Amino acid sequence: MDGFIAWWRGRAIRTDALLAAVLLVVDSAAAPFHAVPTWLWILTAALLAAPVALRRSRPWPAAVVVLIGGVVWLSTHVEATAFHFGLASTLVFAYTLLVHGGVRDAAAFTACLVLGIVAWSWWRVGAVGLLVLLWLVVPWAVGSAVLAARRQGAESARLTAAEEKVAMAREMHDTIAHALSVMVVLADGAAAQIRTDPQRAERALRTMGEAGRTGLSELRRMLDVLRQDHPPTTGPDGAAPHRDPGNDLVALAEQMTGAGLPTRLVLAGSLLGLPGTVSSGLYRIAQESLTNALRHGGVGSRAVLEVVVREGEVELGVSDDGAGARGAVGRGGNGLTGMRERAHACGGTLSAGPDPVRGGWTVRAVLPI
Q: Which residues contact 215 (CB under 8 A, 6 or more apart)?
């Protein structure tokens, strides 16, 4: 991006220099056709045209030179047809000062032009040249449109940055909440079994350590993305797209099984090539759903994680056969809200509630691809 900006600035400066040269050459070529001395005509043309080359780097000094050129033209070119093409630079500088300097600078420059035009018109013609004054509307109209577009772009960038912050906060919340939920459940189980079944308690503690390390690894990955000047392509959720969502879901099912919630994974169709937003949303919804099942499903509950890829959509279903459905109120809160937000961000839908067939809780999401 820095290279492009430098290239564009260099191109803009060259364009200004070319415009100044064209105005000067065209204006100077008209010298023989007027009664004004050639040297005076060319001097006036230079004062009016040459400063255009410096309108970006030295806007006010260049604008003052243009005003001096205007004074020379008004005071020495007596014939009414002695019009300089270089006078177009006055419109250019009114626009430049408005866009790059602000309303106050442009207003001051425009006021000088108006005074000059009014004085010259009254002196030479005996009336105010209103038609000439109307031309000053053009740079103000164009400059105002450019400034409005810039403000809109800045506001859009601000909103995008705010959305990215919210998305990253949600991503971090999901990562930390999942890791801590698994660790809490395992710690409680290990504490309850450390005397009666030390081996099982040891396995729970080992699984708890793996869950903590996995959570830390994900946090480091997100922080690395934040630190990069040119992060990889990401979705609105702020997460880098998974290369193979299927492998992530397999690892998730294994982790939940090790945490005490036997989870069966059913995959129908290939998940390779899914958009990053969809693959990340799919994984996070599955992760949050299984975490809720682990917390609320009760002792001995089992879960099924099913993913079906169809033409134009992917459907995710997470269900458990535990007793947690009887405490359905406990299944709500930020977790369910976050899952719905993720589904909606992908343009999909999500439903959750007690399963009348299995007696547990079911979460179902449909995401377009």
A: 175, 176, 178, 179, 180
Question: Is this prediction's pTM over 0.85?
Answer: no
User: Amino acid letter at 332?
Assistant: G
* Residues 272/276/277/280 CA torsion (nearest 10 deg): 70
Both tokens assigned to 149: 């577009």
* Cα dist from 77 to 49, 296, 302, 313, whole Å: 17, 92, 96, 75
Instruction: Tell me the pLDDT of the chain averaged across its residues.
Output: 80
Residue 332 pLDDT exceeds 80: no
Per-position DSSP letters for 178-214, written without gaps between them: HHHHHHHHHHHHHHHHTTT-HHHHHHHHHHHHHHHHH
- What is the spatial order of strands in the sheet that 349-354 belongs to? 263-268, 303-310, 313-320, 361-368, 349-354
Stated as kind and residue range, the H or E segment containing 306 is strand 303-310
Helix (H, G, I), strand (E, B) or coil at 350: strand
Q: How far apart are CA 341 and CA 327, in angstroms?
A: 23
| Secondary-structure percent of the chain, ordered helix, strand, coil, rounded to 5 | 70, 10, 20
- pLDDT > 90 in the chain, percent: 18
